[in-house]
Design brief:
The chain contains 20 helices and seven strands. α5 packs across α10 and α6 runs parallel beside α10. It is α+β, with helices and mostly antiparallel strands and 356 residues long. The protein is globular and about 65 Å long. The strands form two sheets. The chain has a five-stranded mixed β-sheet with strand order 3-4-7-5-6.
C-alpha cells in the first residue's frame, strides 16, 4: 500500500509551505535560462543540501521571492508551466507506486492529489464530481495569493502541468483532460498552454480547475500496462545521471529532452519553449557547438535502444514503440545504421557472449 503518512504529521501543521525539492528544481531550470542559482537558493532561506532533502519545506515568503526573481531574470511568462513539465519523470515514477495499490484511475488520482497537498499546502486540490464528469479543483490560500499574484499564477501552471502528466501516465499515455479553467486574463502565448495541457484553456474563470470525462476517471487500472513505463523511467533517469556532468548548450538540450520524453520524444518547438528560446535560436546555438537537434535526438534514441535491447523481456516491437517508431521496419533500419546489425542479430550476439 502506498503510504504518505510519514510526512503528514509535520507538513499539515504548516499553513503555507512548499516542497524544497520543487524549489531546487525550479532554480536549476531557471539557471538554464540565465538566472543565478546561488542567488535563488539564498532567497529560499535554505542551502542546496537542505532543499534536496525530501522533508524540506520552504515558507511562502521565501518561496514568493524565489519565483518572482526567476520570472524577472528569465523573462519567461510561462516559467511555471515549464517547471511543471520539468518534473515529468517524477510524475511517472509516482504513478508506478500508486497503481500497485489502486483499482481504478479515480483511487490513484485521489492519492496523487493527497500527496501533492503535502508539498504545496498553499494551493490545496481535490478531485470532485461534476454534473457529467470530474474536476480537480484548486483553492488557493487567499493571503498567499494576495501577497504575490506572480507566484500564485506560476505555481498554479506548474501544478496543473504536473497533475495532467500524472493523469496522462495513469491512463497509459492515452487520455488528456477536457479543459482547464484559469482565474486570470489570457496571455499571448495561450496556444502553448493548450498544447502542453492537451486540451482547451479558458481564462478569467471564477475557479482554477482541470476537467475530466467521467469514464476516464472511473476506468479500471490494468497494472500490467505499466511495465513499459517503468522501463522508460529507468533508462531516462540512467541517461540523465550519466549526462548530468556534461557541459555546454547541447548537454542542456539533451537533459531537457530526457525530462520531456513521455515516451514520445519532444519536438524542437517544445524543447525551445522549455528553455525560453525560439526554435531558431536553439538551432543557432547548437550549430555553434557543431550539433543539431536531429543529431541529439538520434544519439539519445541510440542510447535508449542499446539499453533496451539488453532487456530480454522487451520484444523488438516494444523497443520500437518506446523509441517512437510507428513501423518496426523503420526502427530496424535505424538500428542497422547505429550498429551494423539488425536488432535481432545484435541481441543474439550479446546472448552468445553472455552479455544479455
Amino acid at each position: 500500500m502506498f503510504n504518505i503518512s510519514r510526512q503528514s504529521s509535520f507538513v499539515l501543521y504548516l499553513s503555507m509551505a512548499f516542497n524544497g525539492r520543487f524549489v531546487l528544481n525550479m532554480a536549476h531550470l531557471a539557471a538554464k535560462q540565465g538566472a543565478d542559482i546561488p542567488e535563488l537558493i539564498k532567497l529560499s532561506g535554505k542551502t542546496s543540501e537542505e532543499l534536496a532533502n525530501e522533508d524540506c519545506i520552504v515558507d511562502d515568503v521565501n518561496y514568493n521571492k524565489v519565483v518572482e526573481r526567476i520570472v524577472e531574470k528569465t523573462e519567461d511568462d510561462l516559467f511555471g508551466l515549464h517547471a511543471g513539465q520539468h518534473l515529468n519523470l517524477s510524475a511517472a515514477g509516482l504513478i508506478l507506486q500508486l497503481v500497485q495499490s489502486s483499482g481504478t484511475i479515480k483511487q490513484a488520482y485521489e492519492l496523487c492529489c493527497e500527496f501533492a497537498n503535502l508539498g504545496c499546502s498553499a494551493l490545496p486540490m481535490e478531485l470532485v464530481p461534476t454534473d457529467d464528469g470530474y474536476k480537480v479543483l484548486f483553492t488557493a490560500n487567499q493571503t498567499w495569493k494576495n501577497h504575490s499574484e506572480v507566484a500564485f499564477q506560476h505555481t498554479a501552471l506548474g501544478v496543473i502541468a504536473f497533475k495532467i502528466k500524472e493523469f496522462h501516465s495513469l491512463t497509459y499515455m492515452q487520455q488528456y483532460p477536457i479543459k482547464v479553467h484559469l482565474g486570470w486574463k489570457s496571455k499571448s502565448n495561450y496556444a502553448e498552454l493548450e498544447h502542453a495541457f492537451g486540451c482547451k484553456v479558458h481564462f478569467e474563470k471564477e475557479e482554477v480547475a482541470i476537467y475530466f470525462k467521467k469514464e476516464h476517471i472511473e476506468a479500471l487500472i490494468i497494472t500490467s500496462n505499466y511495465g513499459l513505463l517503468q522501463t522508460l523511467i529507468e533508462h531516462a533517469e540512467d541517461l540523465s545521471r550519466k549526462k548530468s556532468n556534461q557541459l555546454g548548450f547541447g548537454a542542456a538540450v539533451a537533459q531537457t529532452v530526457l525530462n520531456l520524453v513521455k515516451p514520445e520524444f519532444p519536438t524542437i518547438e517544445q524543447v525551445a519553449s522549455h528553455l525560453n528560446l525560439s526554435s531558431r535560436t536553439l538551432q543557432r546555438r547548437l550549430k555553434e557547438e557543431g550539433l543539431s537537434f536531429k543529431k541529439i535526438i538520434e544519439e539519445l534514441k541510440k542510447d535508449f535502444a542499446l539499453g533496451y535491447i539488453k532487456k530480454p523481456h522487451l520484444s523488438i516491437s516494444d523497443i520500437a514503440y518506446l523509441l517512437n517508431y510507428t513501423e518496426l521496419s523503420a526502427f530496424t533500419r535505424s538500428f542497422k545504421r547505429w550498429t551494423g546489425m539488425s536488432p535481432v542479430q545484435y541481441r543474439n550476439s550479446k546472448i552468445k557472449k553472455g552479455h544479455s
